[in-house]
From TrEMBL:
<protein>
    <recommendedName>
        <fullName>SURF1-like protein</fullName>
    </recommendedName>
</protein>
<dbReference type="InterPro" id="IPR002994">
    <property type="entry name" value="Surf1/Shy1"/>
</dbReference>
<dbReference type="GO" id="GO:0033617">
    <property type="term" value="P:mitochondrial respiratory chain complex IV assembly"/>
</dbReference>
<keyword id="KW-0999">Mitochondrion inner membrane</keyword>
<keyword id="KW-0496">Mitochondrion</keyword>
<comment type="function">
    <text>Probably involved in the biogenesis of the COX complex.</text>
</comment>
<comment type="similarity">
    <text>Belongs to the SURF1 family.</text>
</comment>
<dbReference type="GO" id="GO:0005743">
    <property type="term" value="C:mitochondrial inner membrane"/>
</dbReference>
<dbReference type="Pfam" id="PF02104">
    <property type="entry name" value="SURF1"/>
</dbReference>
<keyword id="KW-0472">Membrane</keyword>
<keyword id="KW-1133">Transmembrane helix</keyword>
<dbReference type="InterPro" id="IPR045214">
    <property type="entry name" value="Surf1/Surf4"/>
</dbReference>
<keyword id="KW-0812">Transmembrane</keyword>
Amino acid sequence: MIRSRSTSLFGGPLLRLCSSELNSFAQKPINHNGCKKYLWNAYFQRTMATLQRPVNPGQAKGIPPRALFMLTIPAAAFALGVWQVKRKAWKEELLEHMHRRIHRNPIPLPLTMEEIDKLDYCPVTLTGTFDHSKELYLGPRTQINVENHQGGGGGIFSSTKSGYNIITPFKPNDRDYYILINRGWVPSDRKNPAHRTEAQITGEITLNGIIRLPEKREPFMLKNNPERNQWVYRDVDKMAEVAGTAPIFIDAAEDSWIPGGPIGGQTNLSIRNEHMQYIITWFSLCAVTSYMWYHQYVASTTLRGRLR
C-alpha cells in the first residue's frame, strides 16, 4: 500500500477524490515569454517523490503520546518568549515614564494621599523643619551618583563602599503632620548622628525632592527589623508607623547636600532591563527543540504513516 505523506497530513479521502483535478492542474502548460512551462516541474516531482513512502498497514494510527509530550517543550519556550516580549515593552514604557516624570518642574506636595499615590517619581518642593531624634537607617547599600539625571540617564552606583540612607521625619509648614525624607547616603562610619552633628539641620529649610511609593521586598531579600531600626527595603507604611509620621516618602534631591551631611539624590533610576536576552534565549530554544522534534518524529520514519 502506497500513501503520500501529503495525503496523510491533510485528509487522505478528500485529496484522493480530487487527485485527477490536482494532476490536471499541475500539468497545465502556461505561457511565459513565448515558451511553454509546466507547473509539474522537477521540483514538484522531487517533492512528491519524497513525500510518498511505504506505510506499514499494521502500524498504529495517530501521534504517539511521547511525540505529543515532547512537543510541549518548544511550545512552552515559544510562550515564554512571547511573555518576555510583553515584559520588555512594559519595562521600556516604565523607564520612559520615570524619566519623563522626573524631568518635570517641581510642584508643591499635594495635600491628599490619593494625589500623592499617583505621583511616583514626581519632583516636589516643600518647606519645613526636621526632627532628627527619630532617624531611620535604610541599608546597607552603596552610594548612587545621579549626576546624569538631567541627561535622562539613571542612577549609577559610584563605589562599592557600604553605607546607609538617612530617613528623617520632616514637618511641612502647610500641614499638621510629619512625613519621611530620605536625606541621602552616608558611609557606615557616619551612620551615628554624633559623627555628623554639623549636618543636623535646625530651623526652617526649603528642599526639593522626589515622591517615592512603597518598595516591594524582593525574593531572598532580608526582612526589615523595625525593633533594631534596620531597614533593608522601603516599607513606607511600617516606617511611618515607627517614626510617627504620615506614610509619605520623599527622596531629597542632590542639591540638598551640605558639608558633612547625607548625600542627596539617592533615587535609583537604573532598572534592570535584560528582557532582550531572555527573548533571544527562549525563541532560540524554541527553534532548536522544534527542529529536533521535526527531525525525530517527522523527517525520520518514526511518525511516517501514523498521520492520516
